[in-house]
Design a protein that fits this description.
Pfam families: p450. The protein is mainly α. 66% of the residues lie in helices and 4% in strands. It has a two-stranded antiparallel ribbon.
């Protein structure tokens, strides 16, 4: 372990002791869960096994529903389908709010459909749902775009001529292109440098936010922002995404035809103009840029990860792969 990592863990452990002492001074009606020091015993293993393994151990010791105190934050983990269903379906209204994440909030400051709350979230969600549906989401037309992009993906994989290769980039690029065709109105060639820069920023941002130092940042932001590490590199990745999207917005503004929206950005710009006299409107450039970043980032990473796991399962179970090939 590097010296910087060791110092970070030592500092975090000391602060955990303080917060645990403060927590024990308060009474709580929450279900039983680990003390602050207990999860810290697993942190040295987190670099190799990840946070999922830590949470599995906590679940085995307590129950599928348990609280974890992280500094000023108290997180409730739901680890089975019954608990998730009760929270998100049976008591959906009570669980509809969104917690403030320090690192993400520093970047987006509550803007964009994925990070907003209250009336801002309602307006942006309503617009995004209807607009994305207009551009094919959930309809037959999007299937045609996916099929077209899948052909480019097959061609890209065919260039390996049967030799072993890592499909991560090819899959990520194909998923991103489907999203780009809706958001920007066009797909990109897999070798396009602007596209590669966009994908690189998304990938690097995801990797850096997955590091253990980001967990410490969420717990002790005022201290961690002065400590170098991956958590402090995220802003540069976000800045690259922001500048790319902002430039696309400017390009669309110069050739905008209100009677014929070409993509998501056009539709947002048209609605912004329509509501410019409404002081309560959340349709503005800031929300446009942040929402677009979130759509591209979240849609690309989640879907490509799902597909990679699907390919991995097919490799592990060749008999299932054979049945797919037959169809």
């Amino acid at each position: 372990m590097e010296l910087g990592d060791a110092a970070t863990l030592l500092l975090a452990a000391c602060l955990m002791i303080f917060w645990e002492w403060k927590r024990r001074q308060r009474t709580s009606k929450l279900p039983p869960g680990p003390t602050l020091l207990e999860p810290s015993g697993y942190l040295l293993q987190a670099r190799n096994k990840g946070m999922l393994e830590i949470l599995r151990k906590v679940k085995e010791k307590y129950s599928p529903v348990f609280p974890v105190n992280l500094g000023m934050w108290q997180l409730m983990f739901l680890c089975d389908s019954d608990s998730v269903r009760e929270a998100l379906v049976d008591q959906a209204e009570e669980f509809s709010g969104r917690v403030r994440a320090e690192l993400v909030d520093t970047l987006f400051q509550g803007h964009g459909v994925a990070m907003a709350n209250g009336e801002r979230w309602k307006q942006l969600r309503r617009f995004c749902t209807s607009t994305l549906r207009n551009f094919g989401m959930g309809k037959k037309s999007i299937e045609e775009q996916i099929q077209e992009e899948s052909q480019y993906l097959v061609e890209e994989m065919g260039k390996t001529k049967g030799s072993p290769f890592d499909p991560t980039l090819a899959i990520t690029h194909s998923i991103a292109n489907v999203i780009c065709s809706i958001v920007f109105g066009n797909r990109f060639d897999y070798k396009d440098q602007n596209f590669l820069n966009l994908m690189g920023s998304i990938n690097n941002a995801f990797l850096d936010t997955s590091k253990i130092s980001t967990l410490f940042y969420e717990t002790f932001p005022r201290i961690m922002k002065y400590i170098p590490g991956p958590h402090n590199r995220v802003y540069s990745h976000y800045r690259a995404l922001h500048d790319f999207i902002l430039e696309r917005v400017r390009i669309n503004q110069q050739s905008l035809d209100p009677s014929c929206p070409r993509d998501f950005i056009d539709s947002f710009l048209i609605r912004t103009e329509e509501e410019k006299q409404n002081p309560q409107s959340e349709m503005n450039t800031r929300n446009l840029v942040e929402t677009t970043i979130q759509l591209v980032f979240a849609g690309t990473e989640t879907t490509s990860s799902t597909l990679r796991f699907g390919f991995l399962l097919l490799v592990k179970y060749p008999e299932v792969q054979g049945k797919v090939d037959m169809k």
